[in-house]
Amino acid sequence: MGKNLIQQRRGRGTPTYRSLKHKSKGKTGMVSLTDQIVEGKIIDIVDCPSHSAPLLRVKYEAEEKISIAPEGVKVGDYISTGKSVAVKLGNTLPLSQIPDGTFIYNIEKNPGDGGKFVKSSGGFAKIVSKMADKVIVMLPSKKQKEFKLNCRASIGIVAGGGRPEKPFLKAGNKYYAMKAKNKLYPHVSGVSMNAVDHPFGGSSSSHKGIPTQSGRNDPPGRKVGMLSPRSTGRKKR
Questions:
Q1: Which 3 state secondary structure label does DSSP give 55?
Q2: Per the domain annotation, does 221 fall within a domain?
Q3: 20 to 30 A Cα–Cα from 198, which one of 18, 90, 130, 153?
């Protein structure tokens, strides 16, 4: 008698694999796009299991927002958002108004989306150069990515740096850290399983007796490995 794969058990949506939204402090974001300068006061710094970095609760005149905390801010500080605000720690402004070489975080993918890139603890990006219609930014991975001129970003480095440097020391600590974020742990590779548990399982433990590519129209029990890849094998130069 076979078993369901992990992917199939996740798909049922049981509490085991459901994200614990009730423990989250909320979704991070920015003030809506506006031509005016909007100033807010930091009223609290909170910890959220859904985020690796500390979060700020910022009180604006019309609303309260939760945002990613940079290094060096404290409760009672004021941060601003707008096109002509100062290039100051925690402020948010368009990429076109930020000088080259400035450290930034929480970069928008599209203008007004509230920030999608560089949000984990200790992360920062850097503006490399500007052109007539785009800004080139170096991400933490050292990859350079192009953004629109009116995409916004915050000034500084995300707080909580050095978090990965502390070793877990034992599996129990790792288990509870993953449980706080509702991540499945431990993660077992398919080749280490029995044949009834995974398509890659069986035979000698670390030997795949079947290709790792599977077609887009394969049944759910076979959809593992590379799903309908565009190309396989070594790339031709």
A1: strand
A2: yes
A3: 18
